[in-house]
Design brief:
Layout lengths: L4 H4 L5 E3 L6 E3 L12 E6 L9 E5 L4 E4 L4 H14 L1
Antiparallel strand pairs: 1-2, 3-4, 4-5
Keywords: Chemotaxis, Cytokine, Disulfide bond, Inflammatory response, Secreted, Signal
GO cellular component, one term: extracellular space
Organism: Neotoma lepida
Amino acid sequence: MSRPLGHLLPIALLARATNVGRECCLEYFKGAIPIRKLVTWYKTSAECPRDAIVFVTVQDRFICSDPKDKHVKKAIRHLQNLRQ
């Protein structure tokens, strides 16, 4: 049974640092990454305490992910292949 993406994603815990204008992930999303719903990705700032990849979905939601996770690497490759 498929559920709307919104139910899967109490997602990205992004924190905007005051007076810096950057976003950092406080924790990683632990669910399955919905590859077909992704439109882009970016790395968080090197100034953030935790390295993270942030995926953006078609619903403009943000998913904080562990850059070392194999599923995250697969999703990045998928998005890069779409751009070629």
